[in-house]
## 1
Amino acid sequence: MQSITLIGGLPGTGENAFLSVEADPGDQVVINVHRQLNVGQDGDVRGAPGALTVLNVLGRSQRITLGAKSFANVAILAPDRQVRMGNNTYGDAATVMTPICAKTAVLVGDVE
């Protein structure tokens, strides 16, 4: 896959941009991302319950962004990239319930 970009959603409505990975319990799913991973405000990335899901972000290209009120419960493997997680000017937190392996991690504001 070249890029994953989840942008948008209607704040306060419960509607958001999302990626849901479907798999059976015990499965191991690896998604290789070659260019960009950007989970914007209200974005949601979810792996299947009981399955191991890894977003393997290759190379040294653009940074990875997990924006305000975003949610991720998949592992992010990006040893040559910067991962930026955090809030916007309104103080809305990013929620990350996942292991992250990155060259650098930047936490801005509230990150749960």
Note: Residues 4 and 59 are 15 Å apart (CA to CA).
## 2
Amino acid sequence: MIGRHSDLSVYKEIFKSSDFLKIVFGGMLIPITFGLSKLSGNQTSLIISGLLLFSVTINGLSIIMEAFQGIKKKKTTRADFLWKL
């Protein structure tokens, strides 16, 4: 959450991280596709679908990969523990 750390170097570290840059890049594709949908035609609908899938892939692939690695190592998370309660 922005505003929780008084030391600004924490935010500099977050903004330089590769995960943050991936999320920003994937998130920027959404307004681009929204703008393209306003100009939509038969040919742009395929481009719009492709950009949306690419955005979901960029933002979701790391989550899926970590889940598979956790299953492979037979690790559970706090969320898994709470789900079992």
Note: Residues 9-84 form one domain.
## 3
Amino acid sequence: MTARDAVHEWNVFSYNFPCGFCQHCWRDEPSMADHFERKFERWYKSVGSYGVILAFSSELSGRHYERFVEYVVSGEWRKCDEWMKETGRY
């Protein structure tokens, strides 16, 4: 993946993030998924949809930041809606 492709994927995600992406991204760590979902919701209420991804990602650290970046730029986030339906979260 080129840097251009990664930036493009980040931008597409930033304006089209699926509901429940925190649950999907950190599905192997349910308590962290819940924690990050609450954090995301606080940021969303504070800055709105246009700034929420930047604000949210800036608070992640270490492996959680790395996981989130990989989740977004790899396009894994595009499978979130399907996963949410399969797991009965919708």
Note: The two ends are 32 Å apart (CA to CA).
